[in-house]
Design goal:
The complex is a heterodimer of chains A (428) and B (319). Chain A has 428 residues and is of the alpha/beta class. Chain A is built from 13 helices and 19 strands. Chain B folds into two domains: 155 residues, Rossmann fold (3-Layer(aba) Sandwich); 153 residues, Aspartate/ornithine carbamoyltransferase (Rossmann fold), CATH 3.40.50. Classes of the chains: A alpha/beta (428), B alpha/beta (319).
């Protein structure tokens, strides 16, 4: 598209830019930032006066459900939801059916996503075949097909020897491995954090140790194998302390947290609220505060949606049998901006955690504004107050705890551009 | 906890899902109403036509013939029609969702569901989804609550100890998995007892147990000092096999079993209670179970009266 975005406040953390600048786009790419390129004639203009113009968001943890679980979500619905949330690059998990453990599934997803052209969809691939935790996947072939990292997702490896081998093999080619730290024996049949609320409500608990035991094990194996590992969605203060120590020991290890973990705690489960049934579980206020501090200190550089759309039936059950997860694409930016209002981060730091930082983690050229690069841009009104109404959500999953009246957000996406095209425009 | 879900806007009882959030006044009212229905074995039963024309459905997703029978008998003594629905013969076993099952039974014009389910929160879930005129009584959900059992225990205590406030009560055994214990602790504290203790090995005590409003003891002798009422909980053997909670029944009995000797540590007029079914020789000796301090069978008799009281308060005018 031939387009100019005028009068906006441009924030591009990758280049430490925070200034009133105009942006010029031709075709798929940005062709000018600041000064108008000579001879450029914009066919369309967006007046971004009073708005913030930042790189399109990069979300490294989205379950898009296709192929296999189209009742919960499809590439069409979920990329539309991403566009509405200002997200232009999605990294999907391998938890599809069939699992992303062959190049064919990656090609299927990418072909469809390209055709839909609402957001860039990249894939992680299964660390073990069919996520069975026993046999290595064909990592090199999967990487060549486009997999950006490897993970066993919500099926943490139980066998430490297999984990050692997967890390060694990944390290051979310097592939990044994403680990969800959880000891499944300690987790047992737990569904919420083992603490005061679980004790009162008589809900089976997941002890903090289920995570920290796995973090300790994963760190030991990472050190032993030299693999690059990234912890997905940490939930406990103890994990943060262990990550801190690992950094002090120069281990190549990083971590992210899910946006909802920075706002909710076990207290939100009161009344058996199945929308607060998430994985890993919501922990204590202390844990939440330590996660916030880690995000502030830069120990945790990436915030993700951990998007898990579900059909209504999956949540319409007593809490222990309700499916865990939150449909999070449409609230990611709002929850991150809330951290600015709550003085956890400044605006530039906040945007970095959902743009260039996740892109850098996966060595991707996105999440930044650069002449000659794809025009992936999110424009939002930082002063717009809004409430989430599940009826207006574009994701197939309406499962969110943030649609309650107590949640009022500040900062709403008005336009999303992906590859130079307007893929979302707020209706006025 | 959205406990107000249990009350009508005018403060009257609508559902009984948990003791949490119910006032002392409501608990006392239930015990007072139950007193009018209470009879001991051998005495003539009390009947009422209060719930004539009403339908009460026992919705049991977890087997318990005994509990179901007492609810059924309580309903019949109040002249209600009773529908029994067991999971083993139900459509949920064939894949129907809980909500579909519920709406199907609701279509048969049931006025009350008595629900037992193996998942914590199931009764709340059902109460949130029933029609305006329908009441729900929780007959045990997972590890969460079993309020009618707790109330019949309170009724039994009240029959023998006139005043709750000076009492020190000890609950012994598997607190971790016990919905009965959670409801008993809440009821005892709401009724204003001096102290509630829980006694057991660390494997059977939930994390942060003190939030329940109890003092935790791991030693039976210490825990029984000055105690007025001892409630022994059932050890569920099926569960103990799945999780490694203690080494053996004999070792458990040696550490936490009630015998004539260990009973000496409590007050001389101590009451011994057990929600049943009891494992003789594991929780206590037969000598204790059948001895002068035991009120275990009285608990069963009073269970009927308490359930009649709750049904009549939720569905009927005050008798």
């Amino acid at each position: 598209m031939n387009l100019s975005i005028l009068n906006g406040r441009v924030i591009d953390p990758a280049h430490a830019i925070d200034a009133m600048l105009d942006i010029y786009i031709d075709g798929e790419n940005i062709i000018g930032i600041g000064a108008e390129p000579p001879g450029f004639k914009a066919k369309h203009t967006i007046d971004a006066c009073g708005k913030i113009v930042c790189p399109g968001l990069v979300d490294i943890a989205a379950n898009l459900r296709e192929p296999g679980y189209s009742a919960k979500g499809t590439l069409e619905t979920e990329t539309a939801a991403a566009a509405k949330g200002g997200i232009t690059t999605l990294v999907c998990t391998p938890c599809t059916h069939p699992v992303i453990d062959t190049p064919a599934v990656i090609e299927l997803i990418q072909r469809k996503a390209r055709k839909l052209a609402q957001a860039r969809v990249l894939t992680t691939a299964a660390l073990t075949r069919n996520l069975d935790g026993e046999r290595l996947s064909d990592m090199v072939a999967l990487r060549q097909a486009g997999a950006v990292a490897f993970t066993n997702a919500h099926h943490p490896l139980a066998n430490t020897l297999v984990e050692r081998r997967t890390l060694e093999y990944a390290a051979t080619f310097d592939y990044l491995v994403l680990l969800h730290p959880e000891d499944r024996h300690l987790r047992a049949d737990g569904c919420i954090h083992e603490g005061a609320i679980a004790t009162r409500l008589g809900l089976p608990g997941i002890p903090e140790a289920a995570e920290s035991v796995a973090v300790a094990r994963d760190l030991a194996l990472a050190e032993h194998t030299g693999a690059r590992i990234h912890f997905r969605s940490l939930s406990t203060a103890r994990s943060i302390r262990m990550l801190h120590e690992a950094h002090a020991n120069q281990l190549p290890v990083s971590a992210d947290v899910a946006a909802h973990q920075l706002h909710l705690t076990e207290q939100d489960i009161e009344g058996f609220d199945t929308h607060c049934h998430v994985w890993p579980p919501l922990r204590t206020l202390y844990d939440r505060n330590m996660l916030r501090q880690a995000v502030r200190d830069g120990l945790v550089k990436v915030i993700c949606s951990d998007h898990q759309p579900h059909d209504a039936d999956a949540k319409n059950a007593p809490l222990p049998s309700a499916a865990p997860g939150i449909s999070g694409l449409e609230t990611l930016l709002a929850l991150v901006l809330r951290l600015v209002d709550e003085k956890v981060l400044d605006l530039q730091e906040a945007i970095a955690r959902v743009t260039c930082n996740p892109a850098d983690l996966l060595d991707l050229p996105y999440g930044r504004l650069k002449v000659g690069q794809a025009a992936d841009i999110c424009i939002f009104d930082p002063n717009a107050y809004w409430k989430l109404d599940t009826q207006n959500m574009l994701s197939k999953g309406k499962n969110t705890p943030f649609a309650k009246p107590v949640w009022e957000f500040r900062g709403q996406v008005t336009h999303t551009l992906f590859n130079g095209e307007i893929v979302y425009k707020q209706s006025s | 906890m959205k406990s107000n879900i249990q009350l009508h806007p005018n403060g009257r009882l609508r559902h009984l899902l948990t003791i949490e959030g119910l006032s002392r006044d409501i608990l006392i009212q239930i015990l007072d109403v139950a007193k009018q229905y209470a009879v001991l074995p051998g005495e003539p039963v009390k009947r009422s036509r209060l719930l004539q024309g009403r339908t009460i459905t026992n919705l049991f997703f977890e087997n318990s013939t005994r509990t179901r029978n007492t609810f059924e008998l309580a309903a019949r003594r109040l002249s209600a029609d009773v529908l029994n629905f067991d999971e083993s013969t139900s459509a949920t076993a064939k894949g129907e969702t809980l909500l579909d099952t519920l709406h199907n039974i609701e279509a048969m014009h049931s006025d009350m569901f008595v629900v037992r389910h193996n998942e914590s929160g199931a009764a709340h879930f059902i109460a949130e989804h029933v029609a305006e005129h329908v009441s729900v009584i929780n007959a045990g959900d997972g590890r969460h609550a079993h309020p009618t059992q707790a109330l019949l225990d309170m009724f039994t205590i009240r029959q023998y100890k006139k005043d709750f406030t000076p009492l020190k009560v000890a609950i012994v055994g598997d607190i971790l998995y016990s919905r009965v214990a959670r409801s008993q602790i809440l009821a005892l504290n709401t009724l204003g007892v001096t102290e509630v203790r829980i006694i057991g090995p660390r494997t059977l005590i939930p994390t942060e147990a003190q939030v329940l409003g109890v003092h935790v003891y791991t030693d039976l002798r210490e825990g029984l000092q000055d105690i007025d009422v001892v409630i022994m909980l059932r050890l569920q053997k099926e569960r103990m096999m799945k999780d490694v909670l203690f080494p053996s029944e004999s070792e458990y009995f040696r550490q936490y079993g009630l015998t004539a000797e260990t009973l000496e540590w409590a007050k001389p007029d101590v009451l011994i209670m057990h929600p049943g079914p009891m494992n003789r020789g594991v929780e206590m000796t037969s000598e204790v179970a059948d001895g002068p301090h035991s009120v275990i069978l009285e608990q069963v008799s009073y269970g009927l009266a308490v359930r009649m009281a709750i049904m009549s308060m939720c569905l009927g005018e005050m008798p």
